[in-house]
Design goal:
Blueprint: H1 9-20, E1 21-23, E2 28-32, E3 35-40, H2 53-59, H3 73-85, H4 87-104, H5 109-126, H6 129-140, H7 142-146, H8 148-151, H9 156-171, H10 178-189
Antiparallel strand pairs: 1-2, 2-3
Helix pairs in contact: 3-4, 4-5
């Protein structure tokens, strides 16, 4: 029979603590042999509107898609907390909202060019990679994008019609007779 040395429970707990510590997101459990299990919950930060950090991020998702004018009172309060905690998110929101406002204004092409140039400068100063990629895409298609400000029309209807044709072709599992396919398209969509 093996003799167990006479130790105080605190010494045993201290030595075996490293072995039996387990960290989870919401609680810390300290388990030791022969000693009752203790559950310690870390203090979860709750903001003034009653949200935890995780809830704040999850519930703020949809307000970031809207302009400030369309926010409800609770969304305004949530945005104030979110932007105080995450200042980079506020900068990114302001950049996205600035581009949205350029397109929603009824302005002439020359004014749009000037406003886009100012927006490009803000993007360069911010240092966000995603906005830099967007800026390069806009610069690549600059003349086509600025044509939107002439008559405020897009090619969305043509894109929609092309998608319908593609879907129709997929339902037929390909096209063998082009003339008959065009005849069917003209009867269905004309």
């Amino acid at each position: 029979m093996k003799k167990i040395p006479n130790r105080k429970p605190n010494e045993f707990l201290h030595k075996s603590m490293g072995k039996y510590k387990r960290f989870t997101h919401f609680n810390i459990k300290i388990i030791s042999c022969g000693i009752k299990e203790k559950k310690l919950k870390p203090e979860i930060e709750i903001f003034e509107n009653g949200d935890t950090r995780k809830q704040l991020l999850a519930r703020s998702r949809y307000l970031l898609y809207k302009t400030r004018e369309k926010w409800t009172a609770s969304q305004k309060q949530r945005a104030k907390i979110l932007f105080s905690e995450y200042t980079d998110m506020e900068k990114a929101y302001n950049l996205a909202d600035g581009l949205r406002k350029i397109y929603n204004q009824k302005i002439q092409k020359s004014v749009a060019m000037l406003k886009l140039a100012h927006w490009f400068k803000e993007v360069e100063e911010s240092g966000f990679k995603a906005f830099s990629v967007l800026m390069k895409t806009i610069m690549h298609h600059y003349s086509d994008i600025l044509n939107y400000f002439d008559q405020r029309s897009t090619n969305a209807s043509a894109e929609s019609f092309n998608a319908k044709i593609k879907n129709f072709r997929l339902q037929l599992r390909g096209v063998r007779d082009k003339s008959f396919f065009l005849f069917r398209l003209s009867k269905l969509f004309a």
